[in-house]
């Protein structure tokens, strides 16, 4: 996998580069500021971009803006946004195009390397990965509004893991249940949320999110 | 009022008649002022007998009510507010009350005005009235009565004894009416200026008040600031810092166990990772409480939109703000105030829908939060609203709460602030 990496803190950039290399990714460009990221996204041949929201020169949401801008030019360009915090507004902006191939994770998640790489692969394959915190807040919101039959705690766990971009197998392992049980939970979630099941695995999170935010 | 403003208001046609009406009102109200002034004068004269002390407080109160009416009128006519004097002092006994009033600057100001107003103000108001009324006598009455009055009928300097002289009187009357009408707005303007001069609290008092207010709000701001620092210090000390220490201890233990008990070491390292995640979460919450990142990144409008998304209520946000950013302390105060109001709507009002409007008219930022809840909110009761008030006080901001029982509740906060020059993402240079 060819990865473009944008992170202004040297230590983190270095650590991420090593982690990615260890998992067989090739870091084709590694930048530490917004303008360089814009150039890299426009010119580099990449499979996925890992981008810190806050970058110089403004130290605000330079990274997110660059990513959204690049995706306007190259629709469906896979980007995984990392941030010290997750905000619903940014999640909405990322999902607005409806094309998928986006991820939005708290920076801490990179410490669980396997899950991080899983998420990266999901995004590169056109899937959607949202941080559990985004999902949790969306769930409490829709639940309080009474828009959805409330999901069982187990179903919420499954949905959250799904949102992290993990496969049924990985979900089954994490929750120590069988894969068929996972499939059953997912079917029940789709039924409760009124979503047609689609054969395309990675579209499911996007569909759920699209429903929840609407 | 400036001549330009007077022109803008259109001192022509209807405006002149309005001004004439005002002169009439002033002329009649002048008698009340004379009365009140004489009442107070009488009370003062009776002071040596002792009865004066009893009479003075009500008389001074009456005079104050009258002068307040004049202040309000002058403010309305000129659009410029008058700073009122301090309220009249009260005493525990009649004697003390009277004595306190004698020592009050505002009272003597009122009295000076009461004696000057009939002369200066009264004359100003009387001149156009007299001209118009005398003019009306010449123009409207003379043509019909001059025949009956015969010789010795004079109108001003014109002996009205023939048709020709009658016409002269008629024209003179019309001219006098015209002059009176033209003078009326000038005189009301002069009168308002005079009232401003006589009835405004002296500039020193105004400045003293302003200084007192600034001292108060600065002290409050320092308190808020100090409390915030203490909170941050405690949160860091008891939260993230403690977790990091525990984390170091666990790491140390894991290092020692690496060789002898790798299984246990592995469990400990997993604990370390979990602890580091909790420490990060602590720090995140702390940062959010100090300055929400989305507010720092995007400014007030998007930060409020983000609040709306996070709320479980149906929140509609309408924004009409100038491009660029507002001063960041103002943004911060407005954000936390709106956040508090939104929380209140959800927690206390049982609302399901909230409308937030952000506007800026060039000098003031206004944010209104309207919910469809059951109303009956009391600004003096909740600590949340008090906190909002205190926050806004520092900026000379205001919070108006309209919450009749049964709802809906509208809270409107205003903060005076000019919008800064637009800061585009590239003009901040390297931060």
TrEMBL record, chain A:
Q: Which residues carry this modification: 4-aspartylphosphate?
A: 52
Gene Ontology process terms (BP): phosphorelay signal transduction system; regulation of DNA-templated transcription
List the molecular function annotations (GO) for this entry: DNA binding
Q: Quote the Pfam families the UniProt record gives.
A: GerE, Response_reg
Keyword Transcription attached: yes
Q: Keyword set for this entry?
A: DNA-binding, Phosphoprotein, Transcription, Transcription regulation
- InterPro entries listed in its UniProt record: CheY-like_superfamily (IPR011006), NreC/VraR/RcsB-like_REC (IPR058245), Sig_transdc_resp-reg_C-effctor (IPR016032), Sig_transdc_resp-reg_receiver (IPR001789), Tscrpt_reg_LuxR_C (IPR000792), WalR-like (IPR039420)
Q: Domain named HTH luxR-type: which ranges?
A: 144-214
- Domain named Response regulatory: which ranges? 2-122
Q: What is this protein called?
A: DNA-binding NarL/FixJ family response regulator
Q: Which organism is it from?
A: Streptomyces griseochromogenes
TrEMBL record, chain B:
Manganese as a keyword? no
Any one GO molecular-function label of the UniProt entry: phosphorelay sensor kinase activity
Q: Does the keyword rRNA processing apply?
A: no
SMART domains linked? HATPase_c
- Which Gene Ontology cellular component annotation is one that this UniProt entry carries? membrane
Enzyme Commission code: 2.7.13.3
Q: Where are the transmembrane segments?
A: 25-47, 119-141, 153-181
Q: Where is the Histidine kinase/HSP90-like ATPase domain?
A: 329-419
Pfam families associated with the record: HATPase_c (PF02518), HisKA_3 (PF07730), Sensor (PF13796)
InterPro entries cross-referenced by the UniProt entry: HATPase_C_sf, HATPase_dom, Put_sensor_dom, Sensor_HK_TwoCompSys, Sig_transdc_His_kin_sub3_dim/P
Query: What chemistry does it catalyse, as a reaction equation?
Result: ATP + protein L-histidine = ADP + protein N-phospho-L-histidine
**Keyword annotations of the record:** ATP-binding, Kinase, Membrane, Nucleotide-binding, Phosphoprotein, Transferase, Transmembrane, Transmembrane helix, Two-component regulatory system
Principal EC category: transferase
Q: State the SUPFAM superfamilies in the record.
A: ATPase domain of HSP90 chaperone/DNA topoisomerase II/histidine kinase (SSF55874)
The name under which this protein is listed is histidine kinase
From which source organism is this entry? Streptomyces griseochromogenes
Please name the taxonomic classification of the source: Bacteria, Bacillati, Actinomycetota, Actinomycetes, Kitasatosporales
């Amino acid at each position: 996998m060819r990865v473009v990496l944008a992170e202004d803190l040297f230590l983190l950039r270095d650590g991420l580069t090593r982690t990615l290399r260890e998992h067989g990714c090739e870091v084709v460009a590694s930048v530490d500021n917004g303008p360089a990221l814009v150039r890299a996204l426009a010119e580099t041949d990449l499979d996925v971009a890992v981008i810190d929201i806050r970058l110089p020169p403004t130290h605000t949401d330079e990274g997110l803006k660059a990513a959204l801008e690049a995706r306007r030019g190259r629709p469906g360009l896979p980007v995984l946004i990392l941030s010290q915090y997750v905000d619903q507004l940014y999640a909405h902006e990322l999902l607005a195009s409806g094309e998928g191939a986006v991820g939005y994770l708290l920076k801490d998640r990179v410490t669980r390397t396997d899950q991080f790489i899983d998420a990266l692969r999901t995004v590169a394959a056109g899937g959607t990965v949202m941080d559990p915190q985004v999902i949790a807040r969306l769930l409490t919101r829709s639940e309080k509004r009474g828009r959805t039959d409330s999901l069982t705690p187990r179903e919420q766990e499954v949905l959250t893991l799904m949102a992290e971009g993990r496969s049924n197998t990985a979900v089954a392992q994490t929750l120590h249940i069988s894969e068929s049980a996972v499939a059953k939970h997912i079917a029940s979630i789709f039924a409760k949320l009124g979503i047609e099941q689609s054969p395309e695995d990675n579209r499911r999170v996007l569909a759920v999110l699209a429903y929840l935010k609407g | 009022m400036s001549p330009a403003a007077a022109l803008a208001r259109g001192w022509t046609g209807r405006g002149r008649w309005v001004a004439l009406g005002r002169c009439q009102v002033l002329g009649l109200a002048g008698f009340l002022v004379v009365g009140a002034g004489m009442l107070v004068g009488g009370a003062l004269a009776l002071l040596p007998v002792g009865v004066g002390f009893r009479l003075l407080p009500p008389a001074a109160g009456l005079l104050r009510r009258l002068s307040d009416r004049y202040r309000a009128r002058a403010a309305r006519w000129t659009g410029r507010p008058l700073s009122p004097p301090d309220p009249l002092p009260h005493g525990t006994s009649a004697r003390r009350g009277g004595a306190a009033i004698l020592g009050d600057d505002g009272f003597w100001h009122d009295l000076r005005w009461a004696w000057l107003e009939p002369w200066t103000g009264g004359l100003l108001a009387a001149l156009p009235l007299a001209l118009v009324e005398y003019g009306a006598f010449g123009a409207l009455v003379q043509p019909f009565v001059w025949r009956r009055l015969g010789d010795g009928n004079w109108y001003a300097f014109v002996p009205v004894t023939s048709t020709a002289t009658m016409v002269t009187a008629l024209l003179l009357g019309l001219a006098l009416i015209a002059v009176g009408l033209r003078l009326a707005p000038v005189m009301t303007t002069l009168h308002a200026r005079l009232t401003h001069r006589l009835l405004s609290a002296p500039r020193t008092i105004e400045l003293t008040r302003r200084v007192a207010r600034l001292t108060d709000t600065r002290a409050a701001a320092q308190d808020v600031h100090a409390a915030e620092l203490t909170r941050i210090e405690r949160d860091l000390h008891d939260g993230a810092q403690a977790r990091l220490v525990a984390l170091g201890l666990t790491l140390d233990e894991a290092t020692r166990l690496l060789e002898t008990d790798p299984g246990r070491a592995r469990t400990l390292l997993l604990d370390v990772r979990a602890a580091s995640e909790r420490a990060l979460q602590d720090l995140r919450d702390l940062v959010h409480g100090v300055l929400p990142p989305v507010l720092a990144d995007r400014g007030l409008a998007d930060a409020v939109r983000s609040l709306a998304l996070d709320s479980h209520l149906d929140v509609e946000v309408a924004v009409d703000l100038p491009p660029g950013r507002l001063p960041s302390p103002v943004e911060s105060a407005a954000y936390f105030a709106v956040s508090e109001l939104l929380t209140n709507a959800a927690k206390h009002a049982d609302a399901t829908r909230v409308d937030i409007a952000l506007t800026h008219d060039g000098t003031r930022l206004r944010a209104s939060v309207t919910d469809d809840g059951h109303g009956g909110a009391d600004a003096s009761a909740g600590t949340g609203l008090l906190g909002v008030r205190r926050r806004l006080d520092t900026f000379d901001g205001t919070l108006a709460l309209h919450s009749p029982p049964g709802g809906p509740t509208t809270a409107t906060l205003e903060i005076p602030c000019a919008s800064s020059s637009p800061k585009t993402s590239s003009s901040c240079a390297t931060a």
